[in-house]
Amino acid sequence: MIWQQQYNPFASMVVSTTLAAIPVVVMLVGLGFLHLKAHFAAGAGLIAALIVAVFAYGMPAELAGKAAMLGGLTGLLPIGWIVLNIIFLHQLADKSGACKVQEDSIANITQDRRLQLLLIAFSYGAFFEGAAGFGTPVAVTAAILIGLGFSPLAASGLSLIANTAPVAYGRKRSGPRHRSAGARSGWRCASRRRGSPAPCSAPAWRRSPSPARERRSARVRPSRR
Fold first, then answer.
1. Measured distance CA(117)–CA(133) in Å, rounded
2. Residue 163 falls in which region: left (phi positive, over 0), alpha (psi -120 to 50) or beta
3. Of 114, 160, 168, nearest to 141 (Cα)?
4. How far apart are CA 160 and CA 67, in angstroms?
5. How far apart are CA 203 and CA 184, in angstroms?
6. What digits encode the pLDDT tens for the residues 21-35?
7. Residues 113-124: pLDDT tens digits?
8. Domain residue spans in the chain?
9. Distance between CA atoms of residues 11 and 77, nearest Å
10. Which among 11, 43, 168, 224 is placed 20 to 30 Å from 114, CA to CA?
């Protein structure tokens, strides 16, 4: 079954956007104002999303249930497994005293809060973004900043701001898999314009060799008489 979503079912962008924002608002209100646990707030947001999708946007209930199941499995297996491992490593470092040693080392390097913020929230957060991602850098770096004396609100906000730079490159952490995928995609034809001098099976970097490569190949090529 294929269902074509109507982004503006009520012919009013204000009404449609307000209804679409209800699940996010429900989850944020549960977390920030009602102080619910994360899984309870997420469950309430999921129920609100299902109600809005079925009754407001006309999505079939069967497809809505399957979409919710797929989203839950996607969040639980790949994302949840990575976050679980990085939290385990952080707890292990905390219990063994490595985090305290790290905080003392950074505090001994400089007492300037700005440099501490750059070292932890930006640099260390970029490392965690490449190692795990999915919000883990903000959680870990904010905890370290709080240990150094930052207020919880400032530590969380500054960690979020510092994470805006490396988060765009976080998904490139799986090196061999992504490099092989990029190598395979490089062999695809980037443009199928008529009259292209190169076949579509060759990547762009193989079509036009650099002048230095041509000179090297000319030196090693035997002369023909």
1. 19
2. alpha
3. 160
4. 29
5. 9
6. 999 999 999 988 898
7. 888 888 888 888
8. 13-59, 81-171
9. 38
10. 168
